[in-house]
Design brief:
Layout lengths: L16 H4 L16 H4 L26 H14 L3 H11 L1 H11 L30
Helix pairs in contact: 4-5
This protein binds iron/sulfur cluster (2 copies) and zinc ion.
The site of one iron/sulfur cluster has 11 residues, from helix 3.
Length: 136
């Protein structure tokens, strides 16, 4: 993880399925290159409120948290047990470097030490359970 590893919405690229998979691997939200079509037209990344600065993190926007971010947050909490809004609030509070240090520890697979995938119920490296993934 580094400073370009966070999407404007607060989701960490390193733990995204598209970024972790071996085939058709995504370059990450903030880089140009291979990525799923829906990510190239992401309404949060291309939001007009950013005035052309696509990498602006949404917490830096006067409209934060807007309806779009709130909807994403609700979806992510329900499906994956992860809150992009909480991520952005933490970055604002403690800065990107400390945030990433915490997240690297948080997302370590308890069995193999590989980073877990937020979109998967088991570690993509060793199939050990992702203990953050909602069970219902
Ligand atoms: S798949 Fe989409 S959300 Fe995931 S890292 Fe790539 S661009 Fe970002
Ligand atoms: S918080 Fe909402 S309005 Fe502001 S840049 Fe992000 S998506 Fe756009
Ligand atoms: Zn593992």
């Amino acid at each position: 993880m580094n400073n370009s590893s966070i999407a404007p919405c607060g989701v960490i690229c390193d733990i995204c399925l598209g970024f972790q998979r071996n085939k058709n691997t995504c370059v990450g939200c903030n880089k140009n290159g291979n990525k799923p079509y829906h990510c190239t037209v992401c309404s949060i990344k291309t939001c007009v409120e950013k005035n052309g600065n696509e990498n602006l993190l949404c917490y830096e926007c006067v409209k934060f948290p807007c309806r779009r971010i709130k909807d994403l947050d609700k979806r992510y909490i329900a499906k994956y047990g992860e809150s992009p809004i909480q991520n952005l609030s933490q970055i604002k509070e403690i800065g990107l470097n400390s945030f990433f240090e915490n997240e690297k520890l948080k997302w370590k697979c308890l069995n193999c030490g590989h980073l877990l995938c937020v979109h998967n119920d088991v570690c993509l490296n060793c199939s050990h359970i992702n203990h953050y993934f909602p069970t219902t």
